[in-house]
Amino acid sequence: MVRVRRNSSDSSWSLDDLQSIPSQSQKSLSYHNTDDDFVTARSVISRTTYHTASGAEATSRGSSDRLEEELDYSTLLRCKSLWPIDPLAEKDWSGRGQHAVFLNSERKTVDAILEVQDILGSTRTAVVQSVLCRRILLARKTIQCNQQLPKDKAIDEVSHIFRLQHSHIVQVIGTYVMGTSLSILLYPVADYNLDHFLNRLSPDLLGYNEWNQRKYSLRRFFGCLSHAVCHIHSRLTKHMDIKPQNILVRRVDGGPAVNPYSYRVYITDFGIARSYTTLDDSETEGYTLFTRKWSAPEVVDKRKRGLPADIFSLGCVFIEIAAALARAWSSLDTGPSRQSHGFWDTIAHVDDVLSRNEYNDTSYQANIVPLQNLLEEVGNEGRRPSDDLQHIWKITSRMIEEDAARRPSAQNVATSCAHGRDCCRSVPEPLTACRMNATTLSAVSGA
């Protein structure tokens, strides 16, 4: 059983604590699309799938342990409009419902339901692991709550994501509390964040076929991300921290033999997001957390800001994608006879453009004019990696306007960047089960 020690002097996780966690042996796992999910209707629990509905007469294992009205956690979930849940739509991953309470003495029970696969990351207050739950690989974010981060604040992220059902937004499978900790189960588990994905876009690192497939997928990310942000804004929600590190990339089966696999993106980390009841309410002032490099000028200056602040940040992400595509294009032309490709060579190294700021401010909001000039020149340049992306450079230049009122809406960006694929839908992505060898399957099924 994996245990994480905590410092006796405080209630937060420390990096030293994580060193005490033994490495998990990686299972032999692959994935395939399935109709299996967590939907239950007071049903018999399947050991290998989440889809367990078998009629109203069936009873659920552990039904006596399901959330009751008088529990503090039930009250908290109700206040956040997360409970009660329609039993026909409930994702009963635990046998106790989509949201559950476990005692500290039930840690072995939780470990049996959620088999730890790997550690994905950590902060002072949270650790993220990949866990296998009845053939579905999930990310478990365990937050150690305290006076500085009480449960009612920590669960706000869950509330935001529940409002945002979209194929390019991570989805919450469920939550549970154990003592002072809150655990959130998220889907999917990604292979990369976008920053890592872009930095590895090299044929020398990947080989030509993999490199070419990633370029093909990357070109679609403009449309996928803009469609997701459009959906977020249509629900009157501001993400407030859009950046490559908060965008996940996952390899998926492509289907046809000509494209056996591809990559899909998901917006994640709604920890500082805010939801509103009216569009006017979304215009806010005062201090807020932000990541300076990717934030709009009105956010950095603590001026009034609304949904257009997300558009600015998304425009910065688009520039990063453009830079990666430009580097990919340049890598095809090497050697002493290499010809300069003008502004494409410049955008390939966009960090060099940012570093020329006279005040040493490498944030995008401090370098709007040179970036817009560069995008205009790239759009006009005769030789480009892809002529059919010219409209992307034009709208990206508008997305990073200094004046928030001049930026296009998320709907306009999504319309301009639409790629005609059917992956962008305002519904959650179907869950994908793991294909496992006989040994692993036997262990999961309890045989």
From TrEMBL:
<keyword id="KW-0418">Kinase</keyword>
<dbReference type="InterPro" id="IPR000719">
    <property type="entry name" value="Prot_kinase_dom"/>
</dbReference>
<keyword id="KW-0808">Transferase</keyword>
<dbReference type="InterPro" id="IPR050339">
    <property type="entry name" value="CC_SR_Kinase"/>
</dbReference>
<dbReference type="GO" id="GO:0005634">
    <property type="term" value="C:nucleus"/>
</dbReference>
<keyword id="KW-0547">Nucleotide-binding</keyword>
<dbReference type="InterPro" id="IPR011009">
    <property type="entry name" value="Kinase-like_dom_sf"/>
</dbReference>
<dbReference type="GO" id="GO:0004672">
    <property type="term" value="F:protein kinase activity"/>
</dbReference>
<dbReference type="Pfam" id="PF00069">
    <property type="entry name" value="Pkinase"/>
</dbReference>
<dbReference type="GO" id="GO:0005737">
    <property type="term" value="C:cytoplasm"/>
</dbReference>
<dbReference type="GO" id="GO:0005524">
    <property type="term" value="F:ATP binding"/>
</dbReference>
<feature type="domain" description="Protein kinase">
    <location>
        <begin position="114"/>
        <end position="422"/>
    </location>
</feature>
<keyword id="KW-0067">ATP-binding</keyword>
<protein>
    <submittedName>
        <fullName>Kinase-like protein</fullName>
    </submittedName>
</protein>
